[in-house]
Design brief:
397 residues, mainly beta, Cathepsin D, subunit A, domain 1
């Protein structure tokens, strides 16, 4: 088994999208068989750090938790899950496959055929997947993750990521359009890379963006061919972790609005990239997003037609590589209060506001960063513990 080198997954930014760079075909990527009842299926979801997570169990093993990633053209599973459900015949000659992440880096992952994945009464049989180590992603989110469900897995379904109601809805592909498309804004998408790309508008300029539920950020923007005006920045942000590596974020706020159909985001925050532009979970969480791959169309629904106002981005100025007993500083934002008090890459944090880091999952940490004016981090050097008060600040006002 080939195990790829996986870098840290730092707090506050995560991009999971993977694209095949190997020999798997489009036909290989969808399940061998998809079984759905006549009625729709609704599964509760957790929205953690803008990641869409579903939990399932169909036998004595599990429960199993999966990220739903519309930006990934492949399904990924943990080695433990593969041991439980891999087809023995397929495992004898399992190849390794080159994959490329959204940041342009590539790696090699071992392939496997999974006998079945069940989501309530929905059953996906003979699923082509790749094996990946999710331990660091699980540590980042504070939730054990067993896999990523890629976009092609749902090819035989109409599926909805309902962020406001925190649920995944699955229905069978029918001869008539799903009722969800009569309730929302329908946009045609292209599926040439086995993932959904749609036209969007930034001020007076049009461009194409990936709908990427595996990206927990805002608008990931490639500026090539575009001429936006920044009302703030761009400036250095946190470290962004991907499945194949990491990069330093360059973040800012645009003067022009972002339009997805009739839905407008005023002065959106953008994370600049030299790869594909993408709509991340920070934007998607405002909608119930329904995909029909048989018609290559997607629907965006929200309760209000009022433009979504600008949001302030708060930060503590730090990114972490997390373990159960300590968080190691992975990066410090230049010019931040954390930088001013002398925090350095490699320093160890063992307590936050007096409580061990084991008591802090991502939701709780993000909440205190948004609301508190300062946070006390306790650093460990040798056997000495040193509390340091670090003010939070507006990374993007």
């Amino acid at each position: 088994m080939i195990r790829p080198r996986v870098h840290f997954i730092p707090v506050l930014a995560l991009t999971l999208a993977l694209f095949l760079a190997g020999c798997m075909s489009k036909h290989d990527l969808k399940p061998g068989r998809t079984i759905l009842p006549k009625n729709s299926i609704s599964l509760p979801a957790q929205i953690v750090g803008n990641q869409f997570i579903v939990e399932t169990r169909w036998d004595k093993h599990g429960p199993w938790r999966f990220l739903v990633d519309t930006g990934s053209s492949v399904t990924l599973v943990s080695a433990d899950f593969a041991r439980r459900y891999a087809s023995e015949k397929a495992a004898l000659a399992a190849p390794s496959v080159h994959v490329k992440s959204a940041d342009g880096q590539s790696t090699i992952l071992p392939a496997v055929t999974i006998r079945r994945i069940e989501l309530e009464d929905a059953r996906f049989e003979n699923v082509q997947a790749l094996i990946f180590d999710f331990s660091e992603i699980s540590a980042h989110l504070g939730v054990k993750i067993d896999g990523v469900l890629g976009f092609p897995l749902f090819r035989e379904t109409v599926f909805t990521l309902d962020y406001p109601q925190a649920r995944l809805v699955l229905t069978a592909t029918g001869l008539t359009p799903d009722p969800a498309f009569a309730q929302g804004t329908t946009i045609k998408f292209t599926n040439s890379r086995r993932t959904p790309f749609i036209p969007v508008r930034l001020g007076g300029e049009n461009f194409i963006a990936l709908i990427d539920s595996g990206n927990d950020g805002p608008l990931l923007l490639n500026l090539v061919g575009l001429h936006p005006t920044f009302s703030y920045g761009p400036s250095p942000g946190v470290t962004v972790g991907t499945l194949t590596g990491n990069r330093m974020q360059e973040i800012g706020r645009l003067e022009q609005p972002l339009d997805i159909g009739p839905h407008r985001f005023e002065k959106p925050i953008v994370d600049l990239t030299d790869q594909i532009s993408a709509i991340g979970g920070e934007i998607l969480r405002n909608f119930a997003v329904t995909f029909d791959q048989s018609r290559n169309q997607v629907s965006f629904r929200r309760d209000s037609s009022i433009p979504i106002p600008p949001q302030i981005r708060r930060a503590a100025g730090l990114s972490f590589s997390k373990t159960p007993t300590y968080w190691r500083i992975a990066s410090v934002i230049p010019g931040s209060p954390a930088d001013a008090v002398g925090v350095q890459t490699g320093d160890l944090v063992i307590r936050i506001n007096g409580e061990t880091v084991a008591d802090w999952n991502l939701r709780r940490y993000e909440s205190v960063v948004r609301r508190a004016s300062e946070i006390t981090f306790t650093f460990l050097k040798g056997t000495k513990e040193t509390p340091v008060v670090i003010p939070t600040f507006d990374l993007v006002p």
